[in-house]
Write a structure and sequence with these properties.
This protein has 301 residues and is of the alpha/beta class. It is 28% helix and 26% strand. The chain is built from 11 helices and 18 strands. A 7-stranded mixed sheet has the order 6-5-4-3-2-1-18. A 7-stranded mixed sheet has the order 7-8-9-14-15-16-17. A two-stranded antiparallel sheet has the order 10-13. Helix 8 links the parallel strand 14 and strand 15.
Amino acid sequence: MSVRELVVLGTASQVPTRHRNHNGYLLRWDGEGILFDPGEGTQRQMLRAGVAAHDLNRICVTHFHGDHSLGLAGVIQRINLDRVPHPVTAHYPRSGQRFFDRLRYATAYRETVGVTEAPVDADGVLARTPGYTFEARRLSHPVESFGYRLTEPDGRRMLPERLAEHGIRGPDVGRLQREGSLGGVTLDEVSEVRRGQRFAFVMDTRLCEGAYDLAEGCDLLVIESTFLGEDEELAVEHGHLTAAQAAGVAREAGVRHLVLTHFSQRYGDPEEFARQARAAGYEGELTVARDLLRVPVPKRR
């Protein structure tokens, strides 16, 4: 049975706290695992969450600030130690290649797994697989930063009542799906479009076009909300979002489930992020992330 869920490994910005690890997020998408922004301590958080190195197919770094990338060295070494049997691809801003190189080879270890480096230069598609298209968009932060988006292709949903009207049943249903028509009946007559699911990951950024593009029509959006509204000037200065701004992006983009994360240690009440997000007009499903939380991708409409 396919699983589509977000496993939250860490939710702190800049520095970890007693209750929040540095960043780290694993998207389980059917048989694949995509690890985003492995901060310091990610390897231990993976253990606590029941995530193995064998679960990883892609590693995606939005930018090379430490809270988003210092765990990369340990994760890559663990992939090699465990002799992961499948290819692992790493995406990151090409402008940070020197940082990636330092982290990949931070210490001596035996390299047994070929990690494919696929750096990001600009907005565009990074990969196309039978199950999804994976792409990046530039964000607005003091260092170059990219967000990521996964889009499942649209499919078809068969309509039993219309199939029955035309006397199509059993193996003939499969033939019609494969061939597009059967006995003068077209696929369009007995089915409807099933919209593919969409996921986006938006980390450190000010409000910008890229954030809206990534979030557009998403079923699940993971987005930073480092600051509360009273510190909006700090957010702009340091290249971050407030909870209200993140919620505004989700509202305008038609996001179904919003996950707020990457919280400054200056705040003691995490529910204030939810209150400010609701006050900004977001009415969809809302989660204030906490470490080791699992968030399912919403069921198809």
